[in-house]
Amino acid sequence: MRAIWTGAIGFGLVNIPIKIYSATQENRPDFDLLERKSLDRVRYKRVNERTGKEVDWDDIVKGHYLKDRYIVVEDADFEEASPEKTKTINLQSFVNESAIDSVYFETPYYLSPQKGGEKAYSLLYRALAKTKKAALSTFVMRSTESLAIIRPHDKLLLLNRLRFHEEIRPASDAGITLSTVSKAEMDMAVKLIKQHTGDFNVEDYRDEYSKELMKLIRAKAKGKRPTVRKLKKKPKASTDLLEQLKASLG
Prior knowledge:
By secondary structure, this protein is of the alpha+beta class. It is 23% helix and 27% strand. A seven-stranded mixed beta barrel has the order 1-2-6-9-8-7-5. Strand 3 and strand 4 form a beta hairpin. Helix 3 runs parallel beside helix 5.
């Protein structure tokens, strides 16, 4: 596994040299766009939408649409606005992980100690595990400032990038109004939840769609006709919510 960032964790006056590795991988098959008849790859062109003419990369700039016109932003402007480049993840405060709503969680990364930082890394891991806290921090990667938490996970430190509060749309924008329910319906729903409550084990769940899609692709590569699973038709259920809950419990 190749490190994508190297730097250090600032834990008070303790400096812990670390490397960051991506904790996720893409398992779904990639697809290219092809012309149906020739199977030649189809490429996109950069075209002026007014004239229809292709535009060279050297003649392309970035612009932000503001008050009925575009404001051109040059490379120097991005550089001027970029956060102070630092290779340190400063731990700013410690919080209960449960206090952070899942809506803020983004990308996970594994942290590993560099040579000479093993003992301080282990100390931070064990201290966070003992106090059951997560460390809140900010850091700069690829000229972008990110909010993050660091927490113990499976015998290593895991960094999770977090979304800033201003990135989250207000829930009220969805325009949801909760309906009233009867006591009988609530009792049935609670009973159904308890009936199917168990320990969470993510390994019990698989990306079945991607697996079936790759089976289909391999069959077509061998000239075989892939078998297409027919969708099972569900029996027509009662429209009465209480009757549906009773049938679910049965």
